[in-house]
Amino acid sequence: MEIAPSHKSSTLPFMREAPDALQAGHQHAEVQGTYRHPVEAIQKNFFQQQMASQEFALRRVYGSHMVQRLQIERHILTQFQRLPVLETSFVGLETVLGTDEDIGFEDYLNMPHMNEHIPRDMHSQMEEKLGITFAKPF
Q1: Distant-in-sequence, close-in-space partners of 13: CB < 8 Å, separation ≥ 6
Q2: Lowest mean pLDDT among 44-48, 98-102, 107-111
Q3: Where are the beta strands (DSSP E) in 1-138?
């Protein structure tokens, strides 16, 4: 199956020949290069575009040193992590970014105490994180 290249990214792709499921197997829509709605791209890139526009405004008002300082602060605050068993909350980063006052789906969905999978113990998770493996006895 060959998908013709589109000249514009906002047009629907079209196929030049019918897919052969017996030879190629069933393919997912993502593998086939299907069209994505423009709103999805806007939603995925919203936070990065918002940060870029804020950095541009700060650079124009206060100078490039202010943007560099904020980037360093964000980088430092992303490095704080707890042990693998404990949930890491980036409270400092959320405060600097201003997302601590917003309540979204990620705040009340996918909570660890609602998970149906049994969590692994701390020792095996730390061994995996540090790359320590021991030979198991027969």
Answers
A1: 3, 4, 6, 33, 34, 35
A2: 107-111
A3: none
H helix intervals, 79-104: 91-97
How far is residue 95 CA from its own chain's centroid? Answer: 19
Query: Which residues 6+ apart lie within 8 Å of 103 measured at CB?
Result: none
Using the structure block, give the residue that is written with the tokens 């360093």. Answer: 72
User: Residue 37: its pLDDT value, please?
Assistant: 84
pTM: 0.53
Compute the CA torsion angle 119, 124, 130, 132 (nearest 10 deg): -160
Cα 39 to its chain centre, rounded Å, is 17
The full length of the chain comes to 138
SS3 content of the chain, % helix, strand, coil (to 5): 50, 0, 50
What letter would DSSP give residue 3? Answer: B
Q: Each residue of 12-42: pLDDT tens digit?
A: 666 677 766 666 666 654 555 566 788 888 8
